[in-house]
Design a protein that fits this description.
The complex is a heterodimer of chains A (392) and B (496).
Chain A (H helix, E strand, L loop, with lengths): L4 H11 L9 H7 L6 H8 L4 H4 L13 H19 L2 H9 L8 E3 L8 H20 L7 E3 L2 E6 L2 E6 L2 E5 L3 E7 L4 E2 L2 E2 L2 H24 L7 E10 L7 E7 L1 H12 L27 H15 L7 H4 L3 H11 L7 H6 L6 H8 L6 H6 L1 H15 L12
Parallel strand pairs in A: 1-2, 6-9
Antiparallel strand pairs in A: 2-5, 3-4, 5-6, 7-8, 9-10
Helix pairs in contact in A: 8-9, 14-16
Chain B lengths: L2 H13 L3 E2 L13 E6 L10 E5 L6 E3 L7 H24 L2 E5 L2 E5 L6 E3 L2 H15 L15 H16 L8 E3 H8 E2 L4 H4 L2 H8 L7 H8 L10 H20 L2 H34 L8 H19 L13 H25 L1 H9 L3 E10 L3 E3 L6 E3 L2 E6 L10 E4 L7 E10 L4 E8 L3 H4 L9 E4 L37
Parallel strand pairs in B: 2-7, 7-8
Antiparallel strand pairs in B: 1-9, 2-3, 3-4, 5-6, 10-13, 10-17, 11-12, 13-16, 14-15, 14-17, 15-16
Chain lengths: 392, 496
């Protein structure tokens, strides 16, 4: 690691015994869905795995990837590598204009230890291979699988694993992403998954541009088009390539990387106030762990939003906290806009029932509208039919 | 979101249970719907790990292939489901009548089948299964896959029709329990949380003394499909591996034993989803059906169904495009937009609770008729002679900020009687507002205002079908697909 020595300890203090996660493009993409959450930023900086932080509590969330998806992904990747990338090469020729008859591939996912040291070695090798490509070295690999690209979090260097980088003569560098979901009738099986894959490709390309720039070459040789390689139809083969323009995704990646948290901001946090005591490994009882998390989220701040429930391990905790306080943002930002200057949902209900408004509530106009809505609803609300029996 | 919804969410938070947001049920429910609960593996959306189906709240039939990725195991079970489904789905068509309008005659079923699923995800899964089955070859071909049973293909084409039809606003051929429940109840949940049938149901009817939030948290790990919770899927993955291993060894006993375990998992999952789906259906059935617009929409659904069945039995055999041409896409989009607007208007003007946000937003005015001057005449813009323009004066105790000149429609004749706001006069002492309107169209219908039940209501919503421009069938060169027209084919490609 290139982490400067004085900050090693504070970073470890912040994480404590909490489960850790590597910095990955997928993690970066996930973190970028909620840039306003201070707790998520602190966890990202300390590489704390929020998805496993609350294991053993009622707020534990399962975000595990389907085992079937994992095995399908591994099978598709194996198919891509099969027979010296025999299926991938024609796709590269047809879609990205690769003219080589001989393809030289290098897989950095193999031969390196699966830890920080391995990532450092792979990043060094990635840098070396890219510089060879930039020099026009014809013996350099032109398919680089498992490249590791770097970005800075203050004085720290975070290393992110990319799927693959393809280089054609010029040189021109492209991002490649292999996905196991099928394309049927020319459309991705799931538009959400396709969008996520493009987001990740955008990150690869932006980080690759940083590397190319750092090597003293014009970053524009990194093409803004990426290639998604997926199976066509319901089997694992044949594979099909879809070229996508990623200017927008690259811009998003740039904005995200520019907002990466600076680890120095968390250097002052003592271990007792970090993530360690919140985790199961911290040695505290469940209630005390939750009390510590309550204090920690008060310190760093949170920003609960609709996407949290599908992407953040702390979501249920934040939701319960907002429910307890009756915070309107519990139901999304739309309702917040309808209740300006109304401090809580309970207060909104009271105003709807005709409670006298405060000056602030009157000025914002919310009080009058709630009162009118409440009166109209009371006048028209239907009587409930009898209840149906509950589910056993 | 609107101000009424915001208030109802706040009330749900205070009272600890969902608040009713509709006075009526805005969907037609048939007496005996078909209920289907599909489950699939995480990465295999074009197949099914299990499907529960039936027409009775107490019982369902479950098909579990064991290894859904093996078509030899999948298709025989899919065929069993297909035969059950096809028989019921096609039954109304057997009773069809031939109707003649002028020189044009067509066949119309007396009713239509209705399919219930737990959530929208199930519709998507069924649509994908339909896509896989709909183009299977039914005859042997050299080097190709084995011929599929025509019933399976027919089933696939019905599913594709239903999935495509599901995107039509207000359609009632396929209903998702979450959508029906969420449309009628306000809860302290996000849109994503409301897609969880167990959690939404817990909010609507929480156990006595339990806050809806706590009740929903307690059951939100229960899945109604199409994917089981991760912990259960892990078990399924282990069992599927054991099942395949037993098949490789030719150990029939072990294969059956593992299959029984997989079946037990999906039975337990389906029981919950089954009960929840029927519970939503039975609860909503108790609310009165909206009397004005639901029946005509159901008639339109029957026409869609009849048209699909006629196409199924025509020369194309129900074969449809999977991708529209550019003109088709334009027409479809235009039709979807106008249908959505029409359904929005119908639901808004027919439901007293749906009218509230319109009144709050000054997109509608409701008041008592104090004067109807049917003899008023004036020269309309662009005309030379004066014509009759009845003037309506309403009295309301609600503030009205609708601008002068704004076009409104009488809710009794929302496709005909158009009025224009002439004056709005607020009396600050009595806090009453006089709204003066001029009737611009369908004066005879407007004359009924004098005898109509009070208060009268006028909104910005009209159910009039908008004029649509004609789209040429010729595709401009800029929009022509590079590979020519797309021809859908079997998706089970065999790599030679």
């Amino acid at each position: 690691m290139t982490t400067p020595a004085p900050l090693q300890e504070p970073l470890a203090d912040l994480a404590g015994a909490a489960p850790r996660a590597g910095w990955s493009v997928r993690g970066l993409s996930k973190w970028s869905t909620n840039l306003q959450c201070g707790t998520a930023a602190a966890a990202f900086a300390a590489r704390v795995d929020l998805d496993r932080l609350l294991v053993g509590t009622d707020y534990q969330v399962e975000f595990e990837q389907s085992p079937f998806m994992r095995s399908r992904g591994q099978m598709v990747e194996a198919k891509v590598r099969e027979n010296g990338y025999a299926e991938l090469i024609p796709i590269l020729r047809e879609t990205l204009g690769f003219s080589t008859t001989e393809v030289s591939a290098r897989n950095l996912k193999q031969g390196y230890p699966p830890n920080d040291r391995g990532l450092l070695l792979r990043a060094t090798e990635t840098r070396h291979i890219i510089s060879e490509i930039l020099r026009g070295d014809l013996t350099a690999p032109n398919i680089l699988e498992g490249a590791v690209l770097e970005a800075h979090l203050g004085p720290y260097t975070a290393r992110f694993e990319a799927d693959a980088i393809g280089a054609r003569l010029g040189p021109v560098l492209h991002g490649l992403e292999v996905k196991s979901w099928p394309v049927v009738d020319g459309r991705a099986d799931d538009p959400g998954k396709a969008a996520e894959a493009l987001r990740q490709l955008g990150f690869y390309l932006f980080l690759l541009r940083l590397l190319v720039d750092d090597l003293g070459t014009d970053p524009d040789i990194v093409s803004s088009t990426g290639l998604l390689v997926t199976p066509r139809n319901v089997g694992l083969t044949p594979l099909v390539g879809s070229v996508r323009d990623l200017d927008r995704e690259i811009a998003i990646a740039q904005a995200t990387v520019d907002r990466l948290p600076d680890v120095r901001d968390y250097a002052h946090v003592p271990a007792s106030e970090g993530f360690g005591p919140v985790s199961a490994g911290g040695g505290l009882g469940v209630q005390e762990r939750l009390d510590r998390l309550d204090a920690l989220t008060d310190t760093f701040g949170t920003h609960y939003q609709t996407s949290c429930l599908t992407s953040c391990g702390n979501a249920k905790f934040c939701r319960a906290k907002l429910h307890a306080s009756g915070d309107p943002s519990l139901c999304g930002q739309a309702i917040v806009r309808f209740l300006p200057r109304v401090p809580s949902l309970r207060r909104a209900a009271d105003l709807g029932a005709g409670a006298p408004p405060t000056d602030e509530e009157t000025t914002s106009g919310a009080a009058e509208l709630l009162a009118r809505a409440g009166a109209l609803y009371t006048e028209r609300a239907p009587e409930s039919p009898p209840a149906v029996p509950g589910v056993a | 979101m609107n101000m009424l919804e915001a208030l109802l969410v706040a009330q749900a938070h205070r009272d600890g249970r969902a608040q009713r947001s509709s006075a009526f049920r805005h969907r037609h429910f048939v007496e005996a719907p078909m209920v289907i609960v599909p489950w699939h593996l995480g990465a295999e959306p074009f197949t099914f790990a299990a499907i529960a189906y039936g027409s009775h709240p107490e019982t369902f039939t479950l098909v579990v292939p064991g290894e859904p990725r093996d078509r030899q195991l999948l298709f025989p079970l899919a065929l069993k489901l297909a035969r059950w489904f096809n028989e019921r789905f096609e039954a109304p068509w057997e009773l069809r009548n031939t109707l003649t309008r002028g020189t044009w005659s067509f066949e119309l079923a007396p009713t239509a089948p209705q399919v219930w699923v737990p959530n929208e995800g199930a519709v998507t899964v069924l649509g994908k299964l339909g896509r896989r089955l709909a183009y299977l070859p039914t005859e042997e071909r050299p080097g190709g896959p084995p011929a599929a049973d025509p019933d399976l293909v027919r089933f696939g084409r019905h599913l594709m029709f239903l999935a495509r039809n599901a995107s039509r606003a207000g359609q009632q051929l396929v209903l998702a329990a979450t959508t029906v429940a969420a449309a009628n109840w306000a809860t302290e949940q996000t849109v994503g949380e409301r897609a969880n049938l167990a959690a939404l149901d817990a909010w609507i009817e929480p156990p006595t003394g339990v806050h809806g939030f706590d009740a929903a948290c307690a059951v939100e790990e229960l899945s109604a499909g199409p994917l089981p919770p991760p912990s259960i899927e892990r078990d399924v993955a282990d069992l599927v591996e054991a099942f395949n291993e037993a098949r490789r060894r030719g150990d029939r006993q072990a294969e059956e034993s593992v299959h029984a375990e997989v079946r037990a998992i999906y039975t337990a999952l389906s029981e919950t989803a089954w009960q929840l789906t029927w519970r939503v259906m039975e609860r909503e059935r108790k609310w009165p059906e909206e009397p004005r617009f639901v029946a005509p929409r159901w008639a339109s659904d029957i026409e869609e169904y009849s048209s699909h069945m006629a196409w199924m039995n025509g020369p194309a055999g129900g074969r449809r495009r999977t991708r529209q041409t550019v003109p088709q896409a334009i027409r479809l989009r235009a039709s979807a937009e106008s249908e959505r607007a029409a359904v929005e208007a119908q639901e808004a003007i027919s439901d007293p609770l749906h009218l509230i946000p319109l009144l709050l937003d000054h997109r509608a005015v409701e008041g008592t008729l104090v004067e109807y001057d049917a003899t008023h005449r004036e020269v309309k813009r662009g005309k030379r002679n004066a014509s009759r323009v009845p003037v309506v004066t309403l009295l309301t105790n609600q503030p009205c900020l609708i601008p002068v000149g704004k076009e409104l429609w009488w809710t009794e004749y929302p496709d005909r009687v158009r009025v224009v706001v002439e004056r709005v006069e607020r009396d600050e002492s009595s806090l009453e507002t006089r709204v003066v309107l001029k009737v611009m169209e369908h004066l005879d219908d407007a004359d009924h205002m004098r005898l109509a039940p009070q208060p009268l209501c006028f909104t910005q919503f009209s159910t009039r079908v908008p004029w649509r421009t004609r789209v040429s069938d010729t595709i401009p060169w800029s929009h022509q697909p590079p590979g020519g027209e797309y021809d859908p084919a079997d998706v089970e490609e065999v790599v030679q």
